[in-house]
Amino acid sequence: MKKKRLAAGALALAVSITACGCGEQLYELTDEEEAVVVHYATRAVTKFNKRQSEGISDVTMLKARMQQEEERRKEEEQKEKEEQQKQEAKQDENKDNSKTESGRQPDQSQSSEQPKIDYVSLGQALKLNGIEAVYKGYEVTSTYMESASYMIRANSGNELLVLHVNLKNTGNKKAKCNILSKMPTFRLNVNGDLNVSADTTILLDDLGTYQGSLKAGAAKKTVLVFQVKEGTVKKVKSMDLEVTINGTGSTVQLVSD
User: Would you state the pLDDT for residue 65?
Assistant: First the structure.
């Protein structure tokens, strides 16, 4: 209905202008007047155009679209950042692995080499002054007899490994020897794979509990007794004795291959 009225009004306006212009020169509009007419006509048409939203962008939709584009851009940037962080982490991991592998090589070569041992004499290990301790050999037996009145037997399934050590006064005066006061402990390593601790005995000639006086140049025979499983000591290629006094350990090489 409104469209019909608009069309009728426009037709009447055209007829009146045509009628008024008969025989007379057409009226020319100035730029300002033409702008006013165009503006008025535009508003009039827009006012009665129900589909005006189709020709003019909806601000709300435009904002929503711009927000979506911004969110999409941020998501892409976040993905790129995460991917870059993953690549950097992987590169760091590869560097650590290469360092670990390069560090293992010297460790493996070092592990194949036997650690160097600083050996000392038995007298030094026992912290003796003026008394020399000399290893004289070993024997493997089922029993050890100090005298006719006292004998030690090996436990069932074991044998006795007896070390013989001579204590000698190397001075020109009488010297006391009190090894018991030092409370030493002894551990024997045979062929690099057998490790045993010395038995504590009441033998008068037990090296670990010896107390006595030695005249100048005199010597005293002593022993250390170890229990080992039968048949484990057949051929001795190496034998080290570790002596510990007051928490300090020293190693004495008794037999070398």
Answer: 64
CA angle 238, 188, 223 (to 5 degrees): 105
Instruction: Write the CA distances from 183 to 60, 107, 126, 179, 244, integer angstroms.
Output: 96, 38, 10, 7, 9
CA 184 to each of CA 24, 114, 150, 198, 208: distance values in angstroms, whole numbers, following the listed order: 144, 27, 23, 10, 6
CB contact at 8 A, 192 and 255 = no
User: Hey, how many other C-beta atoms are within 10 angstroms of the C-beta on 18?
Assistant: 9
Among residues of the chain, what percentage have pLDDT more than 90? 47
Give the Cα-Cα-Cα angle 101, 104, 105 (nearest 5 degrees).
100
Give me 33's structure tokens.
Answer: 């007047």
Question: Under 8 Å CB-to-CB from 199, ≥6 apart: which residues?
Answer: 225, 226, 227
- Give 3-state DSSP helix, strand, coil % of the chain, rounded to 5: 40, 30, 30
CA dist 175 → 168, 171, 183, 211 (Å)? 10, 8, 19, 11
Residue of 234, 249, 230, 136 whose CA lies nearest to 191: 234
Backbone angles phi, psi at 165, to 5 degrees: -130, 130
19-61 per-position pLDDT tens digit: 454 555 556 667 666 666 665 665 555 555 555 544 444 445 5
